[in-house]
Specification:
Blueprint (H helix, E strand, L loop, with lengths): L9 E6 L7 H12 L4 E6 L7 H11 L7 E6 L10 E6 L2 E6 L5 H6 L4 E4 L16 H14 L9 E3 L13 E3 L2 E9 L5 E6 L8 E5 L2 E4 L12 E5 L4 E6 L4 H5 L6 E6 L1
Length: 266
């Protein structure tokens, strides 16, 4: 089979592997062994271990900033080695490769999947008998490398229905007369609380965010609040955010993912 000419597709990596061990470096070695001309971008490898919600959020906030045809390898995989599927998904902006456990579902809220395959074609694996604990090395990285070299997407495995892809569900945002009801979807390294309520619900108007029995007034920038003061604003990621100027909002409010937030325009 004659392959298409390489179009120098980017490959991004997002994992919970951290930087202390050699796992990420090994994945890159596998990719370069197959495609020495690959260009690899590390999104992050500091997702908290097995935290699918954090992986989901970081993936969805990153994908829109990459050019079309980018190949995104995303691995937060508590079910590695079990019957959960390894998949590749084609969507408007490129491709996603990783476990079918809901990690990709935030991206699909923005870019609906166009087609999907279960990665059953061992020709494009590193080994026909992969490790039961390191599919990032033995399946996902080599598949991404072959795809970057021009292997046709549907050759990677068995086509599956996009409606069968696993979703990691958060409660839906509910619009109200003066705002919206939502939940915490992510807490970043600064302790900033990021809701699932899009900024469009306040549309550059002043508002309050009610959480943990507190009503917090909006500002335009972190520095508009006093040091140590709670604030809420329209986040750069596109969602309403709660923070503390020079502090940690999640610790102060003792909050976690899934807890409710109410936004009201004032």
């Amino acid at each position: 089979m004659e392959l298409k000419k390489s179009s120098k597709k980017l490959i991004t990596l997002l994992t919970d592997f951290g930087s202390l061990d050699s796992y990420v470096g090994i994945m890159k070695g596998v990719i370069y062994s197959i495609n020495p001309d690959a260009t690899i971008v590390d999104l992050t490898h500091e997702i908290p271990p097995q935290d699918l919600h954090s992986g989901r959020f970081n993936l969805l906030r990153s994908v829109p900033f990459f050019p079309p045809e980018t190949i995104h390898v995303a691995i937060v995989d508590p079910g590695v080695g079990t019957k959960r599927r390894g998949i590749a998904v084609k969507f408007k902006q490129g491709y996603l490769i990783g476990p079918d456990n809901g990690l990709m579902s935030g991206v699909f809220d923005i870019y609906p999947p166009e087609s999907a395959v279960e990665l059953t074609n061992t020709k494009y694996w590193r080994d026909e008998n992969p490790s039961s604990t390191f599919h990032g090395r033995d399946i996902f990285s080599p598949v991404a490398a072959h795809l970057s070299k021009g292997v046709p997407f549907l050759d990677l495995g068995k086509e599956i229905g996009v409606d069968t892809l696993t979703k990691l569900e958060l409660p839906k945002v509910v619009a109200t007369e003066k705002g919206a009801l939502g939940v915490i979807q992510y807490i970043d390294v600064y302790g900033n609380i990021i809701s699932n309520i899009p900024n469009e619900h306040v549309n550059n108007k002043s508002f309050t965010a009610d959480i943990a029995s507190k009503s917090i007034k909006s500002v335009l920038a972190y520095g508009d609040a006093d040091s140590g003061e709670l604030l809420t604003l329209e986040g750069s990621h596109g969602f309403i955010e709660i923070a503390v100027n020079k502090g940690n909002a999640a610790k102060l409010l003792n909050c976690s993912v899934g807890e409710p937030i109410t936004v009201k325009i004032i």
